[in-house]
Amino acid sequence: MPYTQILANTEAHIEQILEEFPFPFIAKEVRNSMGRGVFLIESEAQFRDYARHNDILYVQEYLPIDRDLRITFVGDEVIGAYWRVGREGHYLNNVAQGGTISFKHVPPDAIRLVEKVAKQLGINHAGFDVAVAGDKLYFLEFNVLFGNMGFRDTQQLVEKKIWEYLVTHRSPDSPPIKPDTPAPRAS
C-alpha cells in the first residue's frame, strides 16, 4: 500500500500529517466512491480546508501514475482485469471521473498478487484497485461494492460468475434457489 494515515481530526494529527507527508499527497473522504471525495493536496492551505470538512483524516502518499488496475475477484479466482487510464493532467483514473479502459498488457504479477491476497484474507467478492509505480505493485483499496463498467464491452458477466459461485458453494442442506424468485419466508 502507499504510505497511509487514517486519524481523528485533531490539531495534533493535522500537524503530524503535515510533518510526515511531502506535497503533493492524496486526501480522501471516508465512505465515498467513484473518485468522489479524493483530493490532490498541494499546500498546507488545501489540507487545512480539507480538514475543516472531514472528521477523519484519510491521507495517502501520492504515487506518480497515470493509470491503475481494476482487478475483479469472484469466488476463488480473478475474473477480469483492466487498466483505468486517467485523462492527461488529472490525478484520478476512475472511469466515473473520465478515465478510459484498456485491456492491454495487464501484468500477470498483479493478478497473481490479488489472487494470493484475496485467498489469504478469505475474500470471495471484491474489486481491487492496484497501482504500478516504478517496479512495485501497490494496493490502493478494495471494495465489495465496485463498478464493473470495464466488463460492459466483453462477454464477461460479473453477475453470472457470482451466481455460479453461490450455487456451487452453498450448503448441501440449503433449499434449492432460483435466481428469479426470492427464497420462501420461514414461518
Whole-number mean pLDDT: 85
Write the H/E string, N to C.
EHEEHEEEEHEEH
How is the main sheet built?
5 strands, antiparallel
Helix content: 10-25%
Strand content: 25-35%
Distance between the termini: 48 Å
Strand order of the largest sheet: 7-6-5-8-9
* Secondary-structure class: alpha+beta
List the total number of helices: 4
Shape: globular
Radius of gyration over alpha carbons? 19 Å
Low-confidence stretches: none
Count all strands and give the number: 9
What's a quick, concise take on this entry?
The chain is built from four helices and nine strands.
Written account of the structure:
The protein has 4 helices and 9 strands. The chain is of the alpha+beta class and about 190 residues long. The longest helix is centred in the middle third of the chain and has 14 residues, at about 110-120.
Strand-helix topology:
Layout: E1 4-8, H1 11-20, E2 25-28, E3 38-41, H2 44-52, E4 56-61, E5 67-74, E6 77-85, E7 100-102, H3 108-121, E8 125-133, E9 136-143, H4 158-168
Antiparallel strand pairs: 1-4, 2-3, 2-4, 5-6, 5-8, 6-7, 8-9
Features:
187 residues, five-stranded antiparallel β-sheet, four-stranded antiparallel β-sheet, globular
